[in-house]
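Dear support,

I submitted the protein below through the web form. The confirmation email said the job was done, but the results page showed an empty box. After a refresh the structure appeared. I'm attaching both so you can tell me whether what I see now is the final result or a partial one.
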Amino acid sequence: MKNPVRKHFLFLALLVAVSSVSLGQQRIVQKPCFDSAMKAQADSVKEDLIQRGYIVVKEATMTMESQYEMPVIVPLMQGTWYEFAFIGDMASKLYEVRMYDYGEKQVVYKKHYGDGMESNVIIYPYIPKMSQYHVIKPVQVSKKKKELCGYIIMFKKVK
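What the results page shows now:
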């Protein structure tokens, strides 16, 4: 009788240890946000690219923290033409987008400074050499606000 009690106690102790470790880990969670000016810019970008033969594959708004990257993982197919758009908060003064392939090799780097209209929009094309997941890491920097809204759109060429 002592053996089953000991097994259950050991299992319970292991379960508590594992759950406390997993609760202590920080996770990056994308929270949506809304900005009417950013939505209008996104609609304009979508209209332009749709007229050029692209379709919207994915789009999302996300709450970002100034000076911190927000990783977005996307599956891409070899040889397919893609366009990506990142729209940052107008309060930011610096916007950057980096894209990495599955082997963590940087394949795209774009940088804009917040001077003038449309400077908060980064659009870039990409044709992957292999079918694999890629990571897009947008970042924006603002001295006025800590929490910023960001908008990312993934397009695929169909015509």
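Response: this is the final, complete result; the empty box was a page-load delay. The helical segments are 2-24, 36-51.
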